[in-house]
Specification:
- This protein has 17 helices and 2 strands.
- It is mainly alpha-helical.
- It has a two-stranded antiparallel ribbon with strand order 1-2.
- The N and C termini lie far apart (about 45 Å).
C-alpha cells in the first residue's frame, strides 16, 4: 500500500480548502465562542453592574475567574478542538487537542492564535494517522497527538507568535503614520477576506489587530455585510438584511462567481469608509482583536469597539490603548462607519451599477 493510499484511508487530505478555508473558519468559531463571548459578558457585567457576571466563580492560584473570564481563558483549547473538528479528527485526537491548544496559545504569547492554527493542524493530522492502527489505541493516539503538538509548539509557537505580533504592529504603525492610505488598504483587504470563504476574524486575531487599524478593519467588514444587505434589499427583502447584515456576506459568494461586478460596490464602499474611519472619526477597535474582522456579524464589530472603549483588551493595552468614556461624537462615528454610510453608499453605487447594466435582475438573489 502506498503512502498516498494510507493518507487517503486515514482521511488526511492536504488541500487549500482543508487547511486554509475549513481550518481557519473553525478557528474563528473557537475564538468567537470563548474569547469574544467572554469579553462581551465581562463588559456587560462591569458596565451594567450585573452581579453574577462580575462575581468570581472559581480561583486558580491568585487569579479569580468570572464566567466571561473562564470562557476567555479557554480560547487556546477551543481553537485547537475546532480546527481538529473541521479536519475530521476522531474523538481521541479531538479531545487531546485541548491541552495542545492551551500550551501552544500560552507559548505563542500575543500571536498565540496563529501558532495554535499551525500546530493544531499538524497535531490533528498526526493523530489521525495513528488512530485505530494499534491494539492500544487508547494510549497511542492521545500520546502521539499530544507529543506531536507540544513538540512542534515548543519549536515554532514562540517564533510564529513573535512574527505575527511584529506584522500586526507593522500594520498598526503604518496606519498611524499613513491613516488615509492604510485605511483604504486595511478596510479593503479585510473586507474582501470577510466575504471570501476564509476567516477575516481569524486573520485579525492572529495579527492582534487593534487601534486605528482595527477600526479600519471593522469599517471594511461592515461595508461588505451592511453594503450587500442594503444593495440587495429589492431581491432579498428583510430576510436578506438579517442573513447578510447580521450573518455573513459570504452568502453572496455564489453570485460573485457568476458576476464579479456585484462585488465592486461593497469593495468601493469599504475604500471610502476605511479612511473616513481612520482620518475623520478616528475609530479605534480596542476590544478583542477578533472583533476587528467580524463586521456586523452578531453586531460583534460595533460591540468590540464599545468594549474597547470601556475595557480595552490585553492586546490593545499592550499596544498603548486606554479606557475612555465615549462622547456623543464617538457614538455617531461608530453608527456612521458601521451601518449608515455602508448602507447609503452601497445602495447608491448599486443603483448606478444597475443602471449601467453591471448588475442585472436576480444577480444578488440568495434564493
Amino acid at each position: 500500500m502506498s503512502f498516498r493510499t494510507f493518507l487517503d484511508r486515514k482521511g488526511v487530505k492536504p488541500s487549500f480548502k482543508a487547511y486554509c478555508l475549513d481550518a481557519m473558519s473553525a478557528m474563528a468559531q473557537g475564538l468567537f465562542c470563548t474569547l469574544l463571548v467572554g469579553t462581551i459578558l465581562n463588559t456587560l457585567g462591569a458596565e451594567f453592574h450585573i452581579g453574577f457576571l462580575t462575581r468570581n466563580i472559581f480561583t486558580i492560584g491568585s487569579n479569580g475567574y468570572t464566567i466571561g473570564g473562564a470562557a476567555a481563558a479557554m480560547v487556546g483549547p477551543a481553537m485547537a478542538v475546532a480546527i481538529g473538528y473541521a479536519l475530521g479528527a476522531p474523538g481521541m485526537v479531538l479531545f487531546t487537542l485541548a491541552p495542545v491548544g492551551l500550551a501552544t496559545n500560552a507559548m505563542g504569547g500575543a500571536g498565540g492564535p496563529l501558532a495554535v492554527y499551525l500546530v493544531a493542524i499538524i497535531a490533528a493530522e498526526a493523530g489521525k494517522m495513528v488512530s485505530k492502527e494499534t491494539k492500544i489505541d487508547i494510549l497511542v493516539t492521545p500520546v502521539v497527538t499530544l507529543l506531536a503538538g507540544i513538540g512542534i509548539a515548543s519549536l515554532i509557537a514562540a517564533p510564529v507568535g513573535r512574527a505575527a505580533t511584529w506584522v500586526g504592529h507593522l500594520i498598526m504603525w503604518a496606519t498611524e503614520l499613513q491613516p488615509f492610505v492604510m485605511g483604504i488598504l486595511v478596510a479593503t483587504i479585510t473586507g474582501i477576506a470577510l466575504t471570501l470563504p476564509i476567516s477575516s476574524a481569524a486573520i485579525c486575531a492572529a495579527l492582534g489587530l487593534t487601534g486605528l487599524a482595527g477600526g479600519a478593519a471593522v469599517a471594511g467588514c461592515c461595508a461588505q455585510m451592511v453594503g450587500f444587505a442594503a444593495m440587495s434589499f429589492r431581491e432579498n427583502r428583510w430576510g436578506g438584511i438579517i442573513s447578510q447584515g447580521l450573518g455573513t456576506s459570504m452568502l453572496q459568494m455564489g453570485n460573485i462567481l457568476k458576476n464579479v461586478k456585484i462585488w465592486f460596490a461593497p469593495i468601493i464602499t469599504g475604500m471610502i469608509t476605511g479612511p473616513l474611519s481612520t482620518c475623520v472619526f478616528h475609530l479605534q477597535m480596542n476590544g478583542a482583536a477578533v472583533n476587528s474582522g467580524m463586521g456586523t456579524c452578531g453586531l460583534c464589530g460595533p460591540i468590540g469597539v464599545w468594549t474597547g472603549w470601556i475595557s480595552p483588551s490585553e492586546t490593545a493595552l499592550a499596544n498603548g490603548a486606554a479606557a475612555i468614556t465615549p462622547a456623543a461624537a464617538d457614538w455617531i462615528g461608530l453608527a456612521l462607519v458601521c451601518v449608515v454610510l455602508p448602507a447609503v453608499i452601497c445602495t447608491v453605487l448599486g443603483w448606478i451599477f444597475r443602471k449601467i447594466g453591471w448588475i442585472k435582475p436576480g444577480d444578488l438573489s440568495l434564493i
